[in-house]
Amino acid sequence: MRRRQRKLYLSKLDAARYLLHLAQKASQRDSRAALHPLRYGAAVLFSDGSTSTAYQKKALEYGCSLDAVTQLAQAIEDRGGESGDPRPVLLLQTDQFGVLHAPFAPGRAYLSEH
């Protein structure tokens, strides 16, 4: 049995601020600043008020790093299986300073193709 979560009733601006906070907090979990100075985090808000976060997993070869938005794909897929399931309504990616960034190529491709 799935546990129901309380719905959050937020304005769009409040929801964006809340997600920005969560994504920025997720970016702080990155402990490999020596490889690349920016730390990225991402957060997604679903229609039922639940959220998921992820942060970039850096690799020595930067192109092999796992970006934060792509890591949210599993959470999006898990919640979007049935027609009545919660849908993602807002997703954003930020760095540790709170500056918003567009999703990188793998994340953009996932979001536009699925």
Task: Describe this entry's structure for a reader.
The protein is an alpha+beta fold and 114 residues long. Helix content is 32%, strand content 19%. It is built from four helices and four strands. The protein has helices at residues 12-27, 68-71, 73-79, 105-113, and strands at residues 40-46, 51-55, 88-95, 100-101. Strands 2-1-3-4 form a four-stranded antiparallel β-sheet, with helices on both faces. The longest helix is centred in the first third of the chain and has 16 residues, at 12-27. The protein is globular, with a radius of gyration of 14 Å. The two termini are 27 Å apart. 27% of the residues are buried.
SS content category: alpha+beta
Number of strands: 4
Which descriptor suits the 3D outline? globular
Helix and strand sequence: HEEHHEEH
The main pleated sheet reads as: 4 strands, antiparallel
> Which radius of gyration do the C-alpha atoms yield?
14 Å
Element layout with pairings:
Elements lengths: L11 H16 L12 E7 L4 E5 L12 H4 L1 H7 L8 E8 L4 E2 L3 H9 L1
Antiparallel strand pairs: 1-2, 1-3, 3-4
